[in-house]
Amino acid sequence: MQKAVELIRRAVEESLREDVRDTGQAQWPEMLGQAPAMQDVFRAIGRLSQSNVTVLITGESGSGKELVAHALHKHSPRAGGAFVAINTAAIPKDLLESELFGHERGAFTGAQTTRRGRFEQADGGTLFLDEIGDMPFDLQTRLLRVLSDGQFYRVGGHQPLKANVRVIAATHQNLEQRVRDGAFREDLYHRLNVIRLRLPALRERGEDIPMLTRFFLQKSARELGVDAKRITDAAVARLQAFDFPGNVRQLENICHWLTVMAPAQVVEPKDLPPELMGVPEPRPVAMFQPPAIDADSMPGLAPLAAMPSSLPVTAAAEPASAPNWLADLEREARRLLEAGEAEVWDALTRQFEGRLIHTALDFTRGRRIEAAQKLGIGRNTITRKIQELGLED
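The chain above was modelled as a monomer; its predicted structure follows.
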């Protein structure tokens, strides 16, 4: 009887482990691409996945660096272990050390319990360090020591710890230039740059855009519980002619936008968002927030993502129920349109973004990264917008 109970317990535990493993894998679709540049990436993943060597993934923001890192883990002998990712640019400097290495109880104010860091969490698996080029200089020394001898200390700890971790790093920055500027340790650069894998920008693999577009339209439809939109060849051609500064992430967001906004089941060129058409969107799309749009990767929709989500998708909301500032916006837009002003969209967008960023910076006392986090945009976006809008001190 005892053996039967033990067998059942093991079967249940294994079933739960399989469920967790399947769920984790379902969140990471296989990478798509038929372009020669992507085929080179796939071949490199196949070779590198069987090795324990440190890999440095480079490429523009939104090009899929984390997907590559996860593929390297998924197809490696470490696939049964954890894949732990951390964006070193998104965590404040005073918290990043604790995030990476953990802390002991009482190590600092608020440390009421001992906490395992990402290195410990990734033991037996893979640790993905995203945006490694933005890591604070003093923490680079600690990271170098871990990569050199595999040992580290928790914050406030005195006992050396070891973790069997494969490190994969990624950056969109030019690390060689960062080294020359004195912002990145040269010895750490050489430690990370054992094998470099460059991920091509979407504009370098335009032949993949039709396949990716249809995949993302299907994916968005499943997420929203609606029928998938179809897209005409003419609309796809317009997509292929676009530069895509936000790369694959931007294309995915556009497909999500189309799933919500396109009026018919077949997407035509006239249904594409304004930044793809080169002219202002005729429909009043700035009066609501479509779900799950990433304003950071779609700068043209930044004011759209900042709007309140309580209004309906159509512009038929009663004026009396709208907040005063929306009514003022509507009146100003109407005044400019009636006056025959050119580039009304750009003019109002610049005013809106300028006031929003100015307010956030005032709220955070000039701390740009915190202001960007409060607004829900990236630090690169807020820096670019400050320069574009002339908000420099």
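Confidence is low (pLDDT under 50) at residues 4-29, 279-322.
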